[in-house]
Amino acid sequence: MKYKVALRRTDEGYSVSCPGLPGCWSQGETEQESLENIQDAIREYLAAASELDRDAEIREVTVAL
Prior knowledge:
three-stranded antiparallel β-sheet; elongated
């Protein structure tokens, strides 16, 4: 799966977030390290979300723009 990420240069290195997953962010000293770290953060985020939805009935909705 592909996710868009927002990469920002900081005084300490790079900060990176995933706008499609609120609260999912990471950082790293280099661009490469921050991108590897956000991949781990996305995997952990999705695993936690899956666990929370374990007993829920999942449905899809369509939203017109």
